[in-house]
C-alpha cells in the first residue's frame, strides 16, 4: 500500500514535471566522494566503517544497486558526469594529471574538459538555478577551464586532482597553483582546519546564501583519495584497525560527519523539504593506495572489472514523499544519468537534450516507464574496453584473450565464460568496435606528430624504391 502510494506520487511528479518543477523547483545537491571502496559504507554492508549519516540517508532514499561510472579513474569519470556524455566522445579518455600524459601532445595545463562541451552547471543555470561547485575540480588547471567559466556561479576548492587535507604552511609554497585552495577565480587562500570539514562549512554557507532561490550544488569531496591524512579524534574510533585501513576508516567517518552537518543544516533552514540529494562515488576504490574494499566485486580503480566501475548510489527524494516506504532500484543506471535527471527535476524539457548519453531516471523510478534505463553501457581506455549488455559483461584486453561473465550469476566475475560462448565474444567485439568508430581521438593526440613522422618515412622509402 505504502509503495503504491509512493509510486503514484512520483508518477504524478514525473508526468507533470515540466509544470510542477518549474513552479517549485527543488534544490539539488550532488555529493561525490573520491576513491571510496564499494563495500566501505554501512549501507553497503560494511561492519568496519562507521557511516551513520549516509546509512540514514540511504534508508530513506532510493538505493541503486547496479550503478556505474563511465570512467574507472577520476578525471574521465567526472567529465562524463558533468556533461552527461561518454567522455571518449570528446577525447577525454585519460586523467589530466601533470606528468601522467608526458608522451602526448598537449602541455599538462592545457589538458581539461573541452570548452565546446556544456556542463551540468550550464544547463541548470539556464533553468534559473544558482550553481556552485565546492571541492575537487580536476577538469583542467588552465584558467580557461576554470569552474566559474564552466557554468558554476560559485567555486571554492582546488583545481587539481589531489592535495593535502591540511593547510599548506609557509615552507610548502613551492606547490603548483592547482594545489592551492581557491575562492572564486584566482583568489587563493589556505583554509584553517581539515579540508573535509572546511568543505562542509563552505556548503552550509552556500545553503545560507542561496536559501531563497533554487540552487544546484556539486559537492566534490576529495575524501577518501590519497594522501592518507586522518584526524586523530576519528582515528581513535577504530582501535582494532591499523595502517592505511585505520586511516581510511577515519577519513570516511569524517566525511560522513560532514554529510550529517549538511543534512542537519538543510533541516534547520527548512530546505530539506525541497532538496534532492544524490550521493555516489567517482570510481572504484584503489585498494593498494588507500586500503579500500570493493568486495564482493573483482578489480579496483583504473580497470574495467566491476570493482573499478560499479559504485554506491543514493537518490534522496524531498520530505513531502520521503515518509513513504521506498525500495531499492535494481536495474542498471549510470552517472551519465545525473545530468538529464537533474535537468528534468529543474523543469527542463528533456527532449532538448539530444546530445547526451544519459537518461532521465524519474520515469524509471516511478515505474511509469518499464524496462532497463541502459540495456548497454560501454567503457574504453586506450586498448582496453568493456561492455555491460543485459546480464553479460565483456572485457577486451590488449595483451590477453577477452573475458565474458554472466553478472546475474557471477557478480564477482570469477567464472570466465568466453570459451563457452565464442559467438558472443565475436558479437561483443563487433559492438565495441562499432561504438569506438563514433568516438573522438583523444585530445592530447590531436597533433598526430608521430603519425606524420611515420608518413614522411614511408614517402621517403617509396621515392627511394622508385629511383
TrEMBL record:
Transit peptide keyword on record: no
UniProt entry keywords in alphabetical sequence: Calcium, Hydrolase, Metal-binding, Signal
SUPFAM superfamilies xref list: Alkaline phosphatase-like
Source organism of this protein record: Flammeovirga pacifica
Annotated family: Belongs to the sulfatase family.
GO molecular function per UniProt: arylsulfatase activity; metal ion binding
Protein name: Sulfatase
Domain Sulfatase N-terminal: 26-343
Gene3D superfamilies linked: 3.30.1120.10, Alkaline Phosphatase, subunit A
Signal peptide: 1-22
Amino acid at each position: 500500500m505504502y509503495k503504491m502510494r509512493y509510486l503514484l506520487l512520483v508518477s504524478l511528479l514525473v508526468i507533470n514535471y515540466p509544470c510542477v518543477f518549474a513552479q517549485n523547483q527543488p534544490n539539488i545537491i550532488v555529493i561525490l566522494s573520491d576513491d571510496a571502496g564499494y563495500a566501505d559504507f554501512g549501507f553497503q554492508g560494511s561492519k568496519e566503517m562507521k557511516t551513520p549519516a549516509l546509512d540514514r540517508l540511504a534508508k530513506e532514499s532510493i538505493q541503486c544497486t547496479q550503478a556505474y561510472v563511465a570512467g574507472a579513474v577520476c578525471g574521465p569519470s567526472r567529465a562524463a558526469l558533468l556533461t552527461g556524455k561518454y567522455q571518449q566522445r570528446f577525447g577525454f579518455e585519460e586523467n589530466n594529471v601533470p606528468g601522467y600524459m608526458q608522451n602526448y601532445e598537449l602541455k599538462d595545463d592545457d589538458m581539461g574538459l573541452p570548452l565546446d562541451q556544456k556542463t551540468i552547471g550550464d544547463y541548470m543555470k539556464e533553468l534559473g538555478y544558482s550553481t556552485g561547485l565546492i571541492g575537487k575540480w580536476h577538469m583542467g588547471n588552465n584558467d580557461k577551464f576554470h569552474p566559474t567559466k564552466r557554468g558554476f556561479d560559485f567555486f571554492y576548492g582546488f583545481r587539481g586532482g589531489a592535495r593535502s587535507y591540511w593547510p599548506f604552511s609557509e615552507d610548502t609554497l613551492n606547490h603548483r597553483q592547482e594545489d592551492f585552495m581557491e575562492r572564486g577565480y584566482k583568489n587563493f587562500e589556505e583554509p584553517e582546519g581539515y579540508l573535509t570539514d572546511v568543505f562542509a562549512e563552505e556548503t552550509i554557507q552556500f545553503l545560507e546564501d542561496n536559501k531563497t532561490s533554487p540552487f544546484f550544488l556539486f559537492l566534490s569531496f576529495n575524501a577518501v583519495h590519497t594522501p592518507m591524512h586522518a584526524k586523530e579524534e576519528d582515528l581513535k574510533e577504530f582501535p582494532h584497525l591499523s595502517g592505511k585501513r585505520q586511516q581510511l576508516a577515519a577519513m570516511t567517518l569524517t566525511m560522513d560527519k560532514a554529510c550529517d552537518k549538511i543534512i542537519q543544516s538543510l533541516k534547520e533552514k527548512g530546505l530539506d523539504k525541497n532538496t534532492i540529494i544524490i550521493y555516489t562515488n567517482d570510481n572504484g576504490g584503489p585498494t593498494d593506495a588507500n586500503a579500500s574494499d570493493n568486495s564482493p566485486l573483482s578489480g579496483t580503480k583504473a580497470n574495467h572489472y566491476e570493482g573499478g566501475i560499479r559504485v554506491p548510489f543514493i537518490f534522496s527524494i524531498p520530505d513531502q514523499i520521503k515518509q513513504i516506504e521506498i525500495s531499492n532500484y535494481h536495474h542498471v543506471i549510470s552517472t551519465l544519468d545525473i545530468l538529464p535527471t537533474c535537468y528534468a527535476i529543474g523543469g527542463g524539457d528533456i527532449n532538448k537534450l539530444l546530445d547526451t548519453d544519459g537518461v532521465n531516471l524519474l520515469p524509471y523510478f516511478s515505474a511509469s516507464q518499464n524496462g532497463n534505463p541502459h540495456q548497454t553501457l560501454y567503457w574504453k581506455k586506450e586498448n582496453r574496453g568493456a561492455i555491460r549488455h543485459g546480464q553479460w559483461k565483456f572485457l577486451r584486453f590488449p595483451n590477453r584473450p577477452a573475458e565474458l561473465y554472466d553478472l546475474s550469476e557471477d557478480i564477482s566475475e570469477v567464472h570466465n565464460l568466453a570459451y563457452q560462448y565464442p559467438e558472443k565474444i565475436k558479437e561483443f567485439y563487433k559492438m565495441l568496435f562499432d561504438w569506438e568508430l563514433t568516438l573522438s581521438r583523444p585530445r592530447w593526440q590531436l597533433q598526430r606528430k608521430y603519425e606524420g613522422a611515420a608518413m614522411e618515412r614511408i614517402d621517403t622509402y617509396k621515392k627511394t624504391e622508385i629511383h
